[in-house]
């Protein structure tokens, strides 16, 4: 990685007029970030946080309202075609031509970039291997599984050999096995020098893929850093997850106890109670000392999901 920003935003703002009133909706509210070449950078946050809007501004498909944004040295508003020619975009929805074959999808997309037929054929053959779709090359997209379609969408986005690949919720709706296969493809891209910018709802995906990330809420950045830095800065070392028959009564007793002092914290979710503490086993012993008998109890290391609960007060998939 180099220190020269590949993407740089200062006071980046996106405002939409509110329907039926004079008020405005600030989808992105004055955010700053800088992305270096060769890293995987993530935008995380609950729905409506401003992640996808920021991605659309980076991809030069939605003009900025305020602040400054530079992508590959270009102004995406004034120089949109130059930006888009050097990007690959993987949208939330696959948007594939389902009545065409896998190979035909790659070919047609390459023609959008004005690539010569011989170049497209050569790159398509390589991308079929990359996406593990060689044996499906002449099958219609309609018959592919969800994981295969997602891999094809990523392969298609690489036909122009982009410097930056933007991925909006790349594994939403996939089963665990398909997600891990897709992660492997993305690791390979990063090793090949492609810079990744992604949004995701999945904490494990962010920890696996992102070198750095920002957490957004209400259009603003509320935290940024590496996954390890965020966990260390915003939550305790361990988390105790508890489930009770009468959760409300148990939560009331826990709030009144010493567990919420000395850096400890309590989070009550619809299906469980989370006790944040540096020593989870000691916290569990304190729960039993209160004469509370949880149905289940789990002590685990803190994760990015706990960071989101701390910063936004709700789970990442709200």
UniProtKB/TrEMBL annotation:
<dbReference type="GO" id="GO:0016887">
    <property type="term" value="F:ATP hydrolysis activity"/>
</dbReference>
<keyword id="KW-1278">Translocase</keyword>
<keyword id="KW-0046">Antibiotic resistance</keyword>
<comment type="similarity">
    <text>Belongs to the ABC transporter superfamily.</text>
</comment>
<dbReference type="InterPro" id="IPR017871">
    <property type="entry name" value="ABC_transporter-like_CS"/>
</dbReference>
<feature type="domain" description="ABC transporter">
    <location>
        <begin position="7"/>
        <end position="243"/>
    </location>
</feature>
<keyword id="KW-0813">Transport</keyword>
<dbReference type="InterPro" id="IPR027417">
    <property type="entry name" value="P-loop_NTPase"/>
</dbReference>
<dbReference type="GO" id="GO:0046677">
    <property type="term" value="P:response to antibiotic"/>
</dbReference>
<dbReference type="GO" id="GO:0005886">
    <property type="term" value="C:plasma membrane"/>
</dbReference>
<protein>
    <submittedName>
        <fullName>ABC transporter</fullName>
    </submittedName>
</protein>
<dbReference type="InterPro" id="IPR003439">
    <property type="entry name" value="ABC_transporter-like_ATP-bd"/>
</dbReference>
<keyword id="KW-0547">Nucleotide-binding</keyword>
<dbReference type="InterPro" id="IPR050763">
    <property type="entry name" value="ABC_transporter_ATP-binding"/>
</dbReference>
<dbReference type="GO" id="GO:0005524">
    <property type="term" value="F:ATP binding"/>
</dbReference>
<keyword id="KW-1003">Cell membrane</keyword>
<keyword id="KW-0067">ATP-binding</keyword>
<keyword id="KW-0472">Membrane</keyword>
<dbReference type="Pfam" id="PF00005">
    <property type="entry name" value="ABC_tran"/>
</dbReference>
<dbReference type="InterPro" id="IPR003593">
    <property type="entry name" value="AAA+_ATPase"/>
</dbReference>
């Amino acid at each position: 990685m180099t220190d020269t920003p590949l993407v740089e935003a200062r006071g980046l703002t996106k405002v939409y007029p509110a329907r039926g009133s004079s008020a405005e909706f600030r989808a992105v509210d004055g955010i700053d970030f800088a992305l270096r070449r060769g890293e995987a950078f993530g935008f995380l946050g609950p729905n409506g946080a401003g992640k996808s809007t920021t991605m659309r501004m980076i991809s030069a498909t939605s003009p900025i309202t305020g602040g400054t944004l530079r992508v590959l040295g270009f102004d995406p508003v004034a120089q949109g075609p130059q930006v888009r020619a050097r990007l690959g975009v993987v949208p939330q929805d696959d948007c594939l031509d389902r009545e065409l074959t896998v190979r035909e999808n790659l070919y047609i997309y390459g023609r959008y970039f004005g690539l010569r037929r011989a170049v497209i054929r050569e790159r398509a053959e390589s991308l079929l291997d990359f996406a593990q779709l060689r044996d499906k090359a002449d099958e219609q997209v309609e018959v592919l599984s969800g994981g295969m379609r997602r891999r094809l969408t990523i392969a298609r986005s690489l036909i122009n050999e982009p410097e930056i690949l933007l991925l909006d919720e790349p594994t939403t709706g996939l089963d665990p096995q398909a997600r891990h296969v897709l992660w492997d493809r993305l690791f390979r891209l990063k090793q090949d020098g492609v810079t990744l910018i992604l949004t995701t709802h999945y904490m494990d995906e962010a920890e696996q893929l992102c070198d750095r990330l920002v957490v957004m809420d209400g259009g603003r950045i509320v935290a940024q850093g590496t996954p390890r830095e965020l966990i260390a800065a915003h939550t305790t070392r361990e988390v105790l997850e508890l489930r009770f028959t009468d959760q409300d009564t148990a939560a009331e007793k826990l709030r009144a106890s010493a567990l919420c002092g000395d850096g400890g914290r309590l989070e009550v979710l619809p299906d469980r109670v989370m006790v944040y503490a540096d020593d989870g086993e000691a916290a569990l012993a304190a729960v039993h000392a209160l004469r509370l008998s949880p149905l289940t109890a789990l002590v685990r290391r803190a994760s990015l999901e706990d960071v989101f609960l701390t910063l936004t007060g709700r789970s990442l998939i709200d």
